[in-house]
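Deliverable D5.2: sample structural annotation.
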Amino acid sequence: MRKAYFSLREWRDNSDGHLYREGEPFPFDGREIPKERMDSLENGHNRAGLRLIRAEEVQDEPEEVRKEEAPEKAPVARKTATKKRTTKK
């Protein structure tokens, strides 16, 4: 089990400008957020004076599921040796 955070209402994050809708995971991109910031958003000690996120215990997904859902990497274009063309005069 791990803690996940979700938006309680619609609000715009001043740090990155992202508009969160009710129920949307926080942070939307999975980046690390400092504990102090998480606490202020969860307990309402922020500029808005509102609780903006809630914590929820969620079950971790098995490693195989995460790998299957991961986007595939695009194939890398490789340069091939080309033959120099000679022109006849």
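Annotation notes: The chain has two helices and five strands. The CA atoms of residues 11 and 20 lie 5 Å apart.
The annotation will be released with the project's public dataset once the embargo ends.
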